[in-house]
């Protein structure tokens, strides 16, 4: 009893994450795991993530590293603002306690977005009619089981309806989860061609130039929050107007105005980053292969292979280095313009944000040197009582970077000089990381072609 009282006093005085009274035996048996603060999250969901359980024998020298590793596992579920642990040893038994502060899980996110590929592409046009608006409703940790429900209702320039439901476990015994999603997309404009690596758009006065809908289902084998693999089957239905077919008969190949296809994808992810929102230490690996099969002779089947690996390293207390690469191979006898995507969308060489480099295969390399300028764990907002909202973390980083990319295009490369050419970019940026994993980047970049300027983005660069 005295030992327990002393332990609590020590935690209060020091304020450290881990409370530890040295165990006087070489190994201890885990007597109990206590969870505090999980008002919404079900205990079995959290205990499933831990790498130890009551009854396990743990060498004393391995106890602290074990608890620290599991604290990170719980934190990377992205269900909590912070997680801490404490433990008490007594007569060869150890009682472990994890304390956590839950986030707010149900929130509507207003949609006010740009209809172009990114903010910089929209800024070049400055066309306020090219704005999307609506509501994105996200319910994380649905039913307290780390499930996620998303519903998106978007109007404006591009109309979109989306619904998805993710279940981390449909079989806890075999660590099998599932994901279901469906969407319908309709736009007032379409990029029907690319000349000089710039998109050409067609806006139809009556009707819609493109419609797209899909349903998708996946089974996911989830070894842990860091390791998973899965299989996904999707059905797509797409159509374009007759005007688009006349502008580009090869948009869907052979002057077709519609197509339907199935896509079967296998993938694997190993995410060993210290923080999923803005990693500084660790590594990330992702690989996948997908087979696309067209129905009713509406296209030529193709295979897509992709891979990505990034290493994050600590150089000193405030300096960090990141280097990584990703690539894609797309194999087919015949390619449609709509499938000729490589760099310029989700993946791109910084400095080329305004360009689209289409092709069948590509390789991309990025590296960056980061210095921590500011790292405030929590800014207390005294006028807000709810602990889910009244603590705001704030981190600011200075980042110097260089990117390189190469796109191989055997089709649709005429009049696009940046295909089949080495692309180089570099620059300096400020990265801000704050509330609920939000990341904001302002970067000044230079490209091999002589382009330069400031670019803004709202996600982690790699």
TrEMBL record:
Residues in the signal sequence: 1-20
Keyword set, alphabetical order: Membrane, Signal
UniProt key word RNA-binding: no
GO CC annotation, single: outer membrane
Subcellular location, record wording: Membrane
PROSITE patterns: TONB_DEPENDENT_REC_2
Entry annotated with the keyword Ribosomal protein: no
Positions of the Bacterial surface antigen (D15) domain: 141-433
First-listed, main subcellular location of the protein, grouped into a coarse class: membrane
Name the record gives this protein: Surface antigen
């Amino acid at each position: 009893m005295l030992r327990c009282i002393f332990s609590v006093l020590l935690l209060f005085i020091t304020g450290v994450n881990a409370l530890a009274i040295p165990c006087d035996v070489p190994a201890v048996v885990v007597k109990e795991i206590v969870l505090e603060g999980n008002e919404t999250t079900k205990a079995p969901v959290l205990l499933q993530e831990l790498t130890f359980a009551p009854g396990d024998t743990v060498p004393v020298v391995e106890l602290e590293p074990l608890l620290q590793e599991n604290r990170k596992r719980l934190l990377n579920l992205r269900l909590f603002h912070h997680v801490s642990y404490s433990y008490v040893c007594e007569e060869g038994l150890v009682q472990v306690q994890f304390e956590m502060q839950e986030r707010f899980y149900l929130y509507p996110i207003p949609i006010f977005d740009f209809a172009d590929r990114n903010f910089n592409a929209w800024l070049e046009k400055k066309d306020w009619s090219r704005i999307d608006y609506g509501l994105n409703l996200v319910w994380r940790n649905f039913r307290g089981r780390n499930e996620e429900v998303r519903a998106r209702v978007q109007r404006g320039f591009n109309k979109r309806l989306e619904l998805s439901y993710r279940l981390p476990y449909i079989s806890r015994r075999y660590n099998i989860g599932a994901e279901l999603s469906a969407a319908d997309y309709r736009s007032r404009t379409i990029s029907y061609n690319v000349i000089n690596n710039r998109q050409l758009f067609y806006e139809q006065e009556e009707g819609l130039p493109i419609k797209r809908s899909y349903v998708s289902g996946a089974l996911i084998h989830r070894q842990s929050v860091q390791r998973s693999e899965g299989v996904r089957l999707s059905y797509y239905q797409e159509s374009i107007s007759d005007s688009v077919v006349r502008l580009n008969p090869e948009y869907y190949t052979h002057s077709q105005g519609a197509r339907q296809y199935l896509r079967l994808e296998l993938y694997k992810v190993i995410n060993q980053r210290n923080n999923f929102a803005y990693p500084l230490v660790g590594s990330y690996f992702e690989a996948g292969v997908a087979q696309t099969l067209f129905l009713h002779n509406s296209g030529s089947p193709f295979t897509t292979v992709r891979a990505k690996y990034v290493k994050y390293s600590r150089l000193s207390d405030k300096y960090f280095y990141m280097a990584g690469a990703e690539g894609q191979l797309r194999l087919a006898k015949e390619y449609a313009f709509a499938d000729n995507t490589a760099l310029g969308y989700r993946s791109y060489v910084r400095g080329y944000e305004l360009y689209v480099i289409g092709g069948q295969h590509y390789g991309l390399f990025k590296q960056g040197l980061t210095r921590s300028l500011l790292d405030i764990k929590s800014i207390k907002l005294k006028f807000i009582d709810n602990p889910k909202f009244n603590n705001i973390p704030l981190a600011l980083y200075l980042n110097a970077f260089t990117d390189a990319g190469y796109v191989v295009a055997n089709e649709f490369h005429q009049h696009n000089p940046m295909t089949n050419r080495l692309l180089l970019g570099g620059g300096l940026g400020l990265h801000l990381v704050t509330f609920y994993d939000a990341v904001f980047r302002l970067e000044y970049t230079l490209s091999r072609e002589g382009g330069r300027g400031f670019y803004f983005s709202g996600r982690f660069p790699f």
